[in-house]
Amino acid sequence: MYPLKYIEPVFRPPSEWKSLILQVTNGCSWNRCSFCDMYSADDKKFKPKKIDLIEQEIKLVAQSGISTSRVFLADGDAMMLPFKRLKEILLLIKEYLPRVNRVSSYCLPRNLSNKTVEQLSELNDLGLKLMYVGCESGDDKVLELIDKGETYNSSLIALNKIKQSGMKSSVMILNGLGGPEFSKQHAINSARLMNEAQPDYLSTLVVSFPLGEERFAAKFTEANCQPFRQLNQNELFTEMEVLLTQLELTKTIFRSDHASNYLVLKGILGKDKDSLLNQVRGALNQPKSAGLRQEWQRGL
Ligand SMILES: C[S@@+](CC[C@H](N)C(=O)[O-])C[C@H]1O[C@@H](n2cnc3c(N)ncnc32)[C@H](O)[C@@H]1O
Ligand code: SF4
Questions:
Q1: Looking at ligand 2, which residue's alpha carbon is closest to its atom 8?
Q2: DSSP letter string over the chain?
Q3: Is the pTM of this model over 0.90?
Q4: Cα of 271 to ligand 2 centre, how many Å?
């Protein structure tokens, strides 16, 4: 274990399980997405950590002798820090943890609006290699209903900036996010966004409400939409079928293996598109023999 004290809970992408989690900010600077309760506890109020404290923590890890090649900057959107602060942090990592060859972070599209491609390239050269972007949807109506504070265009601009800077992007899309009324347009426009952006990684998660769905559903009612309800398995797979059918990706690692998914899918798009579609259709036509996760095996 790393000798660091965290303000819990701490979230990280599943693929960062081996990384040193460096909590350079607490919470999420936006914290309004109506499906997300991750940073809603009182002591998770957004706050950047002081640079002296970050330096002390990096030194502590170095002194512990634990070797690490990857660092994940937590919490929810460490990329909201200004360019200069991010540069300082990356220089400290280089100085004290010279074996680190990949630093990554969650990133909201708007976190990049005050950073140029040149600045992002500089951060990339200093080791910041991968941005996890929770686009959640490419459909503007759904994005408005979930209060993401982003649009198709703002998401695309950020994903293009990431690509131009030489960093990699890993995008999350939420299956079931628009309920039955917006399922089809959510899938079609999310695919359209991915086709334009061509991210390096794409993962889908099923939207889940461990603390209840009232806050989320209220937005649909306020906007005079059909009342929100969670999609059933069949509807979730149908949405996935539309998404995969519409996706025209050339070299994107696709994963739908997060614990929230009933059906585990993994492949490279476009090469594995037919095989992934066959698996989704198998789950639609013969769910009993599709090896689906049981309800008790799922989680967020
Ligand atoms: C810890 S959040 C940080 C992401 C980052 N702030 C952003 O918005 O890009 C990581 C991801 O978890 C997923 N997530 C959060 N709440 C969820 C929920 N209720 N159901 C399913 N996925 C959820 C979303 O895809 C979100 O982008
Ligand atoms: S999804 Fe991301 S931006 Fe939205 S509230 Fe959660 S952590 Fe913040």
A1: 31
A2: --S----S-----GGGTTSEEEESEES-SS---TT--TT-SGGG--EEPPHHHHHHHHHHHHHHT---SEEEEESTTGGGS-HHHHHHHHHHHHHH-TT--EEEEE--GGGGTTS-HHHHHHHHHTTEEEEEEEEE-S-HHHHHHTT-S--HHHHHHHHHHHHHHT-EEEEEEEETTTHHHHHHHHHHHHHHHHHHH--SEEEEEE---TT-SHHHHHHHHHTTPPPP-PPPHHHHHHHHHHHHHH---SSEEEEE-STT-SS-EEEEETTTHHHHHHHHHHHHH-GGGTTPPPGGG---
A3: yes
A4: 32
The residue nearest atom 6 of ligand 2, judged by CA position, is 36
List the pLDDT tens digit at each of the 300 positions of the chain: 678 999 999 999 999 999 999 999 999 999 999 999 999 999 999 999 999 999 999 999 999 988 899 999 999 999 999 999 999 999 999 999 999 999 999 999 999 999 999 999 999 999 999 999 999 999 999 999 999 999 999 999 999 999 999 999 999 999 999 999 999 999 999 999 999 999 999 999 999 998 899 999 999 999 999 999 999 999 999 999 999 999 999 999 999 988 788 888 999 998 999 999 999 999 999 888 777 777 767 766
